[in-house]
Design brief:
The chain is α+β, with helices and mostly antiparallel strands. The protein contains 3 helices and 7 strands, in the order E-H-E-E-E-E-E-E-H-H.
């Protein structure tokens, strides 16, 4: 992926994919389980459904607590904006109409019975902790965005790999560093 010159206001994206030897239904169980996400992430520390929700549903909300060495600690509220089992699970962070980030898992059935899993995210257009870093050093915006997107790409790759191992039954406890709320 190439991000040279990307600015936050451009809504830069990252996407990673992996083929999984498990049905979309099995993969869906994993990607739509928000409680699993912190176990796959070095950054995302905890999540909890809000408003009495017990699982994924369009419009459901959940909180996420995150920690990053350079950005500190923060809490967000995410809104499920797509929930179509076993094809798509997506959430908008902070504001569903003007999110600070949009995250999506896409699942595509394969002819061999497996699944092509895609994890995608877009920064902005709403403000985030990254916005504050850019305001402090506007001359470094492109570098700040580039570094953050590379972090996301690495963690998302680890998340997809961990989900693959779990879905295929080849993993013990997850140790990857992936998904974010």
């Amino acid at each position: 992926m190439e991000w040279t010159g990307a600015r936050y206001g451009d809504g830069p994206t990252v996407e990673v994919c992996g083929r999984i030897a498990a049905s979309p239904e099995r993969v869906w169980e994993l990607v739509s389980d928000i409680g699993l996400l912190p176990t796959l992430s070095a950054e995302l520390q905890s999540v909890a459904w809000l408003d009495g929700a017990a699982g994924p549903a369009l419009g459901a909300r959940f909180t996420g607590r995150s920690r990053h060495a350079s950005l500190g600690e923060w809490e967000t509220t995410s809104y499920v904006v797509a929930c179509e089992a076993p094809r798509e699970f997506a959430w908008a962070v902070n504001d569903p109409e003007h999110p600070s980030a949009l995250w999506r898992f896409g699942l595509a059935a394969q002819d061999d019975g497996g699944t092509l899993l895609t994890q995608w995210m877009r920064l902005g257009p709403g403000r985030s902790g990254l916005s504050h870093a850019i305001e402090r050093m506007p001359e470094k915006e492109q570098k700040i965005v580039f570094v953050r997107l590379r972090e996301f790409e690495r963690s998302m790759t680890a998340t997809v790999d961990a989900i693959k191992a779990l879905a295929e039954g080849t993993a013990g406890a997850p140790t990857a560093e992936g998904a974010h709320a």
